Amino acid sequence: MNNVPRETTHQNPSIEGFSGIKVLDLKDHFLTKEDFSIYKDSNTGVHYTFPQPLNDLSRYYESENYISHTDGKKTLFEKIYQIAKVYNLNQKLNLIRSTTNGKKILDYGCGAGDFLQHMQKNGYDVLGMEPNEKAFEISQSKIGKDNVVNCELKDINQKFDIITMWHVLEHIPNLNEILSELKKHLTPNGTLIIAVPNHLSYDATYYGNVWAAYDVPRHLWHFNPQSIQSLIKKFGMKIENVSPMKLDAFYVSLLSEKYKDNSFAFLKAFYIGMKSNFKAQKTGQYSSLIYTIRTEN
After folding, report:
1. CA-only gyration radius of the chain, Å
2. What InterPro entries does the annotation carry (predicted)?
3. Which of 97, 92, 91, 85 minimizes the C-alpha distance to 107?
4. CA 131 to CA 134: how far, in whole Å?
5. Which contiguous run of DSSP H or E holds residue 103?
6. How far apart are CA 128 and CA 107, in angstroms?
7. DSSP secondary structure of 109-160
């Protein structure tokens, strides 16, 4: 195993009220190769990236290989991502259908708009928010110009039956502010659905500081089931259900093997992905988890 995180006593200045001990040193393997660290908040257990280059964050997304902002199908990685996306879209639709009868949905950080396009085709009233200009234009072309906005959440004067964040929460600088605003934009008995990587999964432990889902500094925050619960409790919300995204274990393992320059990347990634999902059947610690969240009564 590679550099399994170990807690130290190194103290770090707080970020947004989060403060604690360093647990890991790592690099931006995807783009810049710059050095970063991850710290564990002493109150919630939320892990956070330090430093957080908020004034220059867009620079770390400036790559044609950043797949969630494109519809790329050129490279083998892009083709695998697009195949997995079809499966995940149906999983998300089925989850929402089983969770609520509501039809009005906001996707915060909608990327290239595939999820909202899928929901729109299935009779949902959709609105997407996307700050990235390229992804914003792509999503507008799919679901209509009036259905995608690039503004602050506080400027939206609507409430929604469902608000989704598919691998978005970990990217948001103003974490506390956004969670507070998300709650305000839910209808009574509305549902917040958040999908994030889980750093307690087997593949995270195995790959250590080359685990692709750390993805610093684009991922500013890092979660597990306990820290998500502690975080949302501050806002009067609770987890109602947790479900896995099993394909993520394979995709994240494949990216991690790529960062290691492994010539047998596909075989090794498949093995680690299978092992991670197998172990998670007992522990519940899948590579990525979907949290269904409601307001506490």
Report:
1. 18
2. SAM-dependent_MTases_sf
3. 92
4. 9
5. none
6. 5
7. T-TTSHHHHHHHHTT-EEEEE---HHHHHHHHHHH-GGGEE-S-GGG----E
Q: Where do we find the tokens 């820290």?
A: 227
- Rounded mean pLDDT for each run of 10 residues along the chain, 297 residues in total: 46 82 97 97 97 94 67 66 83 96 98 96 98 93 98 96 98 96 97 99 99 98 99 97 97 95 93 99 99 92
- Residue 286: name the closest of 183, 203, 182 by CA: 203
pLDDT score at 128 = 99
Strands (E), the chain: 20-27, 35-41, 47-50, 104-108, 125-129, 148-149, 160-166, 186-197, 221-222, 237-244, 288-295
Look up tokens 């685990």; give the residue: 211
How would you class 21 by CB atoms within 10 Å of its CB: exposed for 0-12, middle for 13-18, buried for 19 or more?
middle
Q: Is-contact 239 58, C-beta < 8 A?
A: no
d(CA 79, CA 100): 32
Which is it for strands 125-129 and 186-197: parallel, antiparallel or unpaired? Answer: unpaired
Please tell me the predicted confidence (pLDDT) of residue 50. Answer: 96
pLDDT score of 9: 42
Please give the pLDDT value at position 62.
Answer: 83
Eight-class DSSP state of 14: -
Whole-Å CA distances, 93 to 97, 201, 236: 6, 25, 26
Q: Give the span between the Cα atoms of 140 and 151, in whole angstroms.
A: 14
